[in-house]
From TrEMBL:
Location(s) in or outside the cell: Membrane
Superkingdom of this protein's organism: Archaea
UniProt name for this protein: Multidrug export protein EmrB
Taxonomic source organism: Methanobacterium congolense
Listed Pfam families: MFS_1 (PF07690)
Membrane topology qualifier: Multi-pass membrane protein
Biological classification of the source: Archaea, Methanobacteriati, Methanobacteriota, Methanomada group, Methanobacteria
Major facilitator superfamily (MFS) profile domain ranges (all copies): 10-509
Length: 512
């Protein structure tokens, strides 16, 4: 940092980048219903675009991280900013789902994959000691703030103006980043283009795409035959990627990523815990808006208001958690975070029914927010602390790749779980009620699938008037039951995170 420059200028620029990347997902979640209508598409397609945004970030993250060694941190970051901005313009002007996919998921995703790891290494290289802990605490807090104000921003724009302004407003942050780019210092490139592991890049990208596509294909029964093929192929290709990296290292060639980092227990478990934290967070941010808008019929703005207590709690406790780690071992802060988050999701699981009001979900969402805030305050600094200075780029790539893979998997997996819960629940309810005595199970399912995909909750048009109240209650009750099952699954994932945290070495053991 140049003499006389504002001390926290670097972290503020990094935070603006993280803020707009996170804002996209959290703000657009409350616009899901509007997007389905405006773009004349389905829930599963919008769900896929949200998941693919995080997936493309994850898939290109290792490549984006390695580019820092070829171009330098600052140039990689700024290139990502320009690509992200071009995607933002296309997303703002979208007239169909394909344009939204291209602008948001593809271009913004690739731009974010170049910005994300660069922010981690830029912050890590610019601060030392307590300042570094504080900087990463701010970094995590601002990321949480993006999630915090995202739903309310998205709600205001979607309800009173246009969801397009969520994307359009991000261009203001892009302009600020470019204006104050002088705070960033360039790192010296250590590699040339010929050193880039192209095969490794292709293997990492394709393997992760196949895994998440396999999960997303669960939303369409006609694609179920391909699910196992995609998941197994993706997993095998990722194993091949790891073997390829080891082969290059053994031959003295530059790997895409230093996989020796994964042998470090702190780094490996830190990444695993990042995935286990992101899956339920993404699921929470996806399915709460679906329920509030479809069952309780709230608009996007009120959905944002309903999520605000959780979001603000996440932001506050991510900042408090950074201070708490100076008194309590980060390992124990994480363990508390996982347990509290699990408790919050378990509480929420029992609150959803056809008469649920905003006030009913606030206690559970606040408890959830406390736990997630504590987790966000610790994971980045604890995981990155396991890397040597010469491994920082690779470490940032792995950490952010796994983080976004977790978010993508969460949106896909939890969204699929909710859709299938509603689908099978409605099938069983209709069969037991005798409303479709002359239809086979297959015929009932064929007639229901489009109905569920379009997120309809009113009685279908061809239902006799005298049966509408019964059918409407059946639909709402089925969705509520599916929500309870889904939140219980989220609680189990958080509890698994608590169990894996037990095996992270404590700070005292690390020092000895």
């Amino acid at each position: 940092m140049a003499e006389g420059q504002y001390k926290w200028g670097v972290v503020i620029i990094a935070c603006m980048a993280i803020f707009i990347i996170v804002l996209d997902s959290s703000a657009m979640n409350v616009a899901i219903t509007t997007l389905v209508k405006d773009l004349n598409t389905t829930l599963s397609i919008i769900q896929s675009i949200i998941a693919l945004y995080a997936l493309i970030i994850a898939s290109f993250m290792l490549l984006g991280s390695k580019l820092q060694d070829i171009l330098g941190r600052k140039k990689t970051f700024l290139t990502g900013v320009f690509i992200y901005a071009s995607g933002t313009v296309i997303a703002t002007l979208s007239i169909n789902a394909f344009m939204l996919l291209l602008g948001w998921a593809v271009l913004e995703g690739i731009g974010a994959a170049m910005m994300f790891p660069a922010t981690t290494t830029i912050v890590g290289a610019s601060y030392q000691g307590k300042d570094k802990i504080t900087a990463f605490g701010i970094w995590g807090g601002i990321a949480a703030m993006g999630a915090a104000i995202g739903p309310i921003v998205g709600g205001i724009f979607t309800t009173y103006l246009s969801w397009r302004l969520v994307f359009g407003s991000e261009l203001l942050f892009v302009a600020l980043i470019l204006i104050f780019r002088g705070y960033l210092t360039e790192s010296q490139p250590t590699l040339e283009w010929k050193d880039l592991d192209v095969v490794g890049a292709i293997l990492s990208i394709v393997s992760l795409v196949l895994i998440v596509l396999g999960i997303l294909f669960l939303t369409k029964p006609e694609y179920w035959a391909y699910v196992v093929v995609l998941l197994v192929s993706g997993s095998l290709l990722f194993a091949v990627f790891l073997l390829w990296q080891r082969r290059r290292i053994n031959k003295g060639l530059e790997p895409l990523s230093d996989i020796s980092l994964l042998k470090n227990r702190i780094f490996g478990l830190g990444n695993l815990n990042s995935i286990l934290q992101q899956i339920p967070l993404a699921g929470f941010l996806f399915i709460i808006p679906v329920f509030l808008q479809q069952v309780t019929h709230l608009n996007a703005f009120m959905t944002g208001v309903a999520l605000l207590p959780a979001s603000l709690t996440i932001m506050v406790f991510s900042l408090l958690g950074a201070k708490l780690s100076s008194r309590l071992d980060p390992k124990y802060v994480m363990m508390i975070g996982f347990l509290v988050s699990a408790m919050g999701t378990w509480i929420l699981g029992g609150t959803f029914n056809i008469n649920t009001q905003i006030a009913d979900i606030i206690p559970g969402t606040v408890v959830f927010g406390v736990g997630v805030g504590l987790l966000l305050s610790q994971l980045t600094n604890l995981t990155m602390s396991a890397a040597r200075k010469d491994q920082e780029s690779d470490a940032a790539g792995f950490l952010n790749a796994f983080k976004n893979l977790g978010y993508s998997m969460g949106t896909a997996l939890i969204g699929v779980l909710l859709l299938l819960g509603v689908f099978w629940g409605l099938t069983a309810s209709i069969q037991s009620s005798g409303l479709a005595e002359n239809m086979t199970t297959t015929e009932i399912q064929d007639s229901l699938f489009s109905y569920v995909e379009k997120m309809q909750t009113t009685a279908p048009q061809d239902i006799p008037a005298n049966l509408v109240p019964q059918v409407t209650q059946m639909v709402d009750a089925t969705i509520s039951s599916a929500m309870q099952m889904t939140f219980n699954a989220l609680a189990l994932i958080f509890f698994l995170g608590f169990v894996t945290s037990i095996f992270i070495p404590s700070r005292k053991k690390q020092q000895t």
